[in-house]
């Protein structure tokens, strides 16, 4: 093979005349340039470590401190109050230096110690400032003097150009809330869902837990909080994600979609070329830490960036009891799947990132390759879609050595996974509604074997140029992936920064001497093929059971909602409560994901959106109460929801605290009837907002057609709904609804119709929720 010959830097043969050595200068040049790229990355990492290590100061501030100390010494003043002289007395090299040299060295040592002390002081002050969260509970437009002073101080201490991870050591740790407060909030959250005797029973269980086992578990949890960076995140990752033994496809993985109205090019290879390039440019920004740290929208408050660390070159590997996340420092290739075959595509040559046009050229080579899949190769990916224990056993026995290990390593060590799908997707044709639903299902599970669900994320590029993404959940949450994928970077870079030629191809030149993509080879025995069939049947049954419905809501958006001085998220959550009540004639435990990234290594917290106030509003509407009364109840419910959201964001949520208490009880080998019952309660309505974060690459007002569809996930409960929504611009909200066909009382299209009804065909006079709030 050509690439094998090019990989040989030198050859030698032994002859009677001696050793005949033949060097390949081209290969040696490639090795040199690749090594140069690696060393540049190492130097960049060292530089970034220094910059982060001294943040919020800068390395140059050391020189300023030294000069200041020397200046004061020149003025015959001792700012060290005798410490410099003490240092000079204890210098081990005092005999070999002149008096002036000893003084200079002592000043440098003192200045360095003073500089480090100032850095620690500044960092401590910044951490204290970032621990202040009262600003979040102040009414919009009514900012207190304390908060104004606080904002000024945060700006002063934040530095001018922080790196991606500069704030990490300055972020506060997630606090452990008082157990009494958590139990009170829990009982308040279940009050509208339980009957009188049921609520009384839970009240008794909570009191017994608090007075006996609860305080003991709380002490252990506080001890962990003192020792660990975050008392929740490691347990959450392990026990909620990695220890799950069922399929991660549908149950854990989620998806992200392309633009709704626009497909930048209909050429599959070209779209893949730009998409891969954009993702690698993002990885370069992450590695060099040049990515701007995420902040709370509209503020200077930084969010934890720890989830970015395992975005690329990461794979979830199966285990018998728990899976493991494996992350590699770097990878110069991606793995591509097309029509049952796997290819390794090198994206760097001699330390240079291939141009989009060159990647398109390589992708086209894969598309044009007529070779058939090897025996058992085409559906091998089904192993990652089925149950975890059989996949672990097969991996250990048949993929731990030889050609299978080498090929599996190519997939697991790749920067990410790419599927060149031979279907067409998107909102096109005579059935746009049905097409969007099929598009969502394709991204969520595909054919159950043409994605590698263990990779941190897999990119899917369709035959007509549409694309999308399937992400594994354990390493990061949706906002991190949304920032990577949607209008924040990849899609925007693809369409506006890289662009296409008039005939739809990628821009740039092609070096035709590029070696072709390397076909991965396998030796798949009959036993593995049998397990592939079993895993595929499990995954296929799960995929066929999923009912997805995706629809853009265009009647109004956050612009009109905010004019009423109501939080758009609270408005949508109350609309979902009303829609669920009309769909199922009851209320249910409702999950809304909120972030805790105000804290170091923070992930998510649950907002229990079904509140007493929300239920009172829904009941008033359904019983025909007067408009003024309903409007007053709605505002009370919206304010309650906002307060619950703020409490969750600031570390005073309910569910993560109770979850960690439950984990401690299991470690101690003690049973708690209260915790067991709480953690077994089903979330029949699971919701999540996909944030549109930093629109830095283009203006949506000038490009209204470039609207992201957002993404979605499968239902959490077998008898419930999963609802994801993205608020796009001022006039649009996109919804993703999922449920299971196997439960006859749920229907994603019926529930979607109930959601739409709140905007167009609500109650009396055909008015929707927004119209009702305005005119009654």
Automatic annotation (TrEMBL):
<protein>
    <recommendedName>
        <fullName>carnitine O-palmitoyltransferase</fullName>
        <ecNumber>2.3.1.21</ecNumber>
    </recommendedName>
</protein>
<keyword id="KW-0276">Fatty acid metabolism</keyword>
<keyword id="KW-0443">Lipid metabolism</keyword>
<keyword id="KW-0472">Membrane</keyword>
<keyword id="KW-0812">Transmembrane</keyword>
<keyword id="KW-0813">Transport</keyword>
<keyword id="KW-0808">Transferase</keyword>
<feature type="transmembrane region" description="Helical">
    <location>
        <begin position="50"/>
        <end position="74"/>
    </location>
</feature>
<dbReference type="GO" id="GO:0006635">
    <property type="term" value="P:fatty acid beta-oxidation"/>
</dbReference>
<comment type="similarity">
    <text>Belongs to the carnitine/choline acetyltransferase family.</text>
</comment>
<dbReference type="GO" id="GO:0004095">
    <property type="term" value="F:carnitine O-palmitoyltransferase activity"/>
</dbReference>
<dbReference type="InterPro" id="IPR023213">
    <property type="entry name" value="CAT-like_dom_sf"/>
</dbReference>
<feature type="domain" description="Choline/carnitine acyltransferase">
    <location>
        <begin position="174"/>
        <end position="756"/>
    </location>
</feature>
<dbReference type="InterPro" id="IPR039551">
    <property type="entry name" value="Cho/carn_acyl_trans"/>
</dbReference>
<feature type="transmembrane region" description="Helical">
    <location>
        <begin position="104"/>
        <end position="126"/>
    </location>
</feature>
<keyword id="KW-1133">Transmembrane helix</keyword>
<dbReference type="GO" id="GO:0009437">
    <property type="term" value="P:carnitine metabolic process"/>
</dbReference>
<dbReference type="InterPro" id="IPR032476">
    <property type="entry name" value="CPT_N"/>
</dbReference>
<dbReference type="Pfam" id="PF00755">
    <property type="entry name" value="Carn_acyltransf"/>
</dbReference>
<feature type="domain" description="Carnitine O-palmitoyltransferase N-terminal">
    <location>
        <begin position="1"/>
        <end position="47"/>
    </location>
</feature>
<keyword id="KW-0496">Mitochondrion</keyword>
<dbReference type="GO" id="GO:0015909">
    <property type="term" value="P:long-chain fatty acid transport"/>
</dbReference>
<dbReference type="InterPro" id="IPR000542">
    <property type="entry name" value="Carn_acyl_trans"/>
</dbReference>
<feature type="active site" description="Proton acceptor">
    <location>
        <position position="473"/>
    </location>
</feature>
<keyword id="KW-0012">Acyltransferase</keyword>
<dbReference type="Pfam" id="PF16484">
    <property type="entry name" value="CPT_N"/>
</dbReference>
<dbReference type="GO" id="GO:0005741">
    <property type="term" value="C:mitochondrial outer membrane"/>
</dbReference>
<comment type="pathway">
    <text>Lipid metabolism; fatty acid beta-oxidation.</text>
</comment>
<dbReference type="InterPro" id="IPR042231">
    <property type="entry name" value="Cho/carn_acyl_trans_2"/>
</dbReference>
């Amino acid at each position: 093979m050509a690439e094998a010959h090019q990989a040989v830097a030198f050859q030698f043969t032994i002859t009677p005349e001696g050793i005949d050595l033949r060097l390949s200068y081209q290969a040696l040049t490639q090795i040199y340039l690749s090594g140069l790229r690696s060393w540049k990355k190492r130097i960049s990492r060292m530089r970034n470590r220094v910059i982060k290590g001294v943040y919020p100061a800068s390395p140059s501030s050391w020189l300023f401190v030294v000069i200041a100390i020397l200046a004061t010494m020149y003025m015959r003043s001792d700012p060290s109050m005798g410490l410099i002289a003490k240092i000079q007395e204890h210098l081990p090299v005092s005999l070999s230096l002149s008096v002036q040299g000893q003084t200079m060295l002592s000043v440098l040592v003192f200045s360095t110690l003073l500089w480090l002390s100032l850095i620690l002081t500044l960092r401590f002050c910044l951490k204290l400032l970032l621990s202040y969260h009262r600003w979040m509970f102040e009414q919009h437009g009514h900012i207190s003097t304390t908060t104004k002073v606080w904002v000024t101080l945060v700006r002063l201490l934040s530095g001018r150009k922080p790196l991606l991870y500069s704030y990490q050591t300055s972020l506060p740790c997630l606090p452990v809330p008082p157990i009494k407060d958590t139990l009170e909030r829990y009982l308040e959250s279940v009050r509208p869902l339980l009957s009188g005797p049921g609520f009384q029973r839970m009240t008794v269980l909570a009191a017994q837990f608090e007075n006996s086992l609860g305080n003991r578990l709380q002490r252990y949890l506080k001890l962990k909080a003192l020792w660990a960076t975050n008392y929740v995140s490691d347990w959450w990752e392990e026990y909620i994600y990695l220890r799950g033994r069922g399929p991660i496809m549908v149950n854990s993985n989620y998806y992200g979609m392309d633009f709704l109205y626009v497909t930048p090019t209909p050429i599959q290879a070209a779209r893949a070329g730009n998409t891969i390039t954009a993702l690698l440019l993002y990885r370069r920004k992450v590695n060099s830490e040049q990515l701007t740290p995420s902040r709370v929208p509209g503020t200077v408050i930084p969010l934890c960036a720890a989830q970015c660390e395992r975005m690329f070159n990461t794979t979830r590997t199966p285990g018998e009891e728990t899976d493991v996340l494996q992350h590699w420092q770097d990878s110069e290739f991606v793995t591509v799947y097309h029509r049952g075959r796997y290819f390794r595509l090198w994206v760097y040559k001699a330390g240079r990132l291939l141009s989009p046009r060159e990647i398109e050229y390589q992708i086209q080579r894969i598309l044009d390759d007529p070779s058939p899949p090897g025996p058992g190769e085409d559906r091998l990916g089904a192993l990652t879609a089925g149950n975890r224990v059989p996949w672990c056993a097969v991996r250990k026995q048949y993929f731990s050595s030889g050609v299978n290990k080498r090929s599996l390593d190519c997939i697991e060590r790749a920067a990410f996974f790419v599927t060149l799908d031979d279907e067409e997707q998107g909102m096109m044709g005579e059935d746009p509604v049905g097409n969007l639903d099929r598009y969502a299902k394709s991204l969520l599970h595909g054919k159950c074997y043409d994605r590698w669900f263990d990779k941190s994320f897999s990119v899917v590029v369709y035959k007509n140029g549409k694309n999308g993404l399937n992400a594994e959940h354990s390493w990061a949450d949706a906002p991190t992936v949304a920032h990577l994928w949607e209008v924040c970077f990849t899609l925007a870079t693809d369409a506006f920064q890289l662009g296409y030629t008039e005939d739809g191809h990628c821009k740039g030149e092609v070096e035709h001497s590029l070696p072709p993509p390397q076909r991965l080879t396998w030796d798949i025995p009959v036993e593995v093929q049998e397990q592939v069939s079993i895993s595929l049947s499990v995954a296929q049954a799960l995929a066929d059971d999923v009912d997805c419905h995706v629809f853009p809501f265009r009647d109004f958006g956050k612009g009109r909602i905010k004019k009423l001085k109501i939080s758009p998220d609270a408005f949508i959550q109350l609309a979902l409560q009303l829609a669920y009540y009309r769909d199922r004639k009851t209320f249910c435990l409702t999950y809304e994901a909120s972030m805790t990234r105000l804290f170091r290594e923070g992930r998510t917290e649950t907002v229990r959106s079904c509140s007493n106030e929300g239920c009172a509003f829904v009941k008033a509407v359904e019983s025909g109460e007067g408009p003024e009364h309903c409007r007053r109840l709605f505002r009370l419910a919206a304010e309650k929801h906002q307060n619950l959201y703020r409490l969750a964001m600031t570390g005073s949520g309910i569910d993560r605290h109770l979850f960690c208490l439950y984990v401690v009880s299991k470690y101690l080998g003690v049973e708690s009837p209260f915790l067991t019952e709480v953690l077994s309660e089903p979330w029949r309505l699971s919701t999540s907002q996909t944030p549109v974060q930093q629109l830095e690459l283009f203006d949506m007002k000038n490009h209204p057609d470039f609207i992201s569809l957002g993404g979605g996930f499968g239902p959490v409960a077998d008898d419930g709904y999963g609802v994801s929504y993205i608020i796009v611009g001022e006039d649009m909200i996109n919804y993703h609804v999922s449920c299971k066909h196997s439960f006859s009382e749920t229907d994603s299209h019926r529930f979607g119709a109930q959601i739409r009804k709140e905007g167009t065909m609500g109650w009396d006079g055909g008015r929707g929720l927004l119209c009702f709030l305005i005119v009654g």
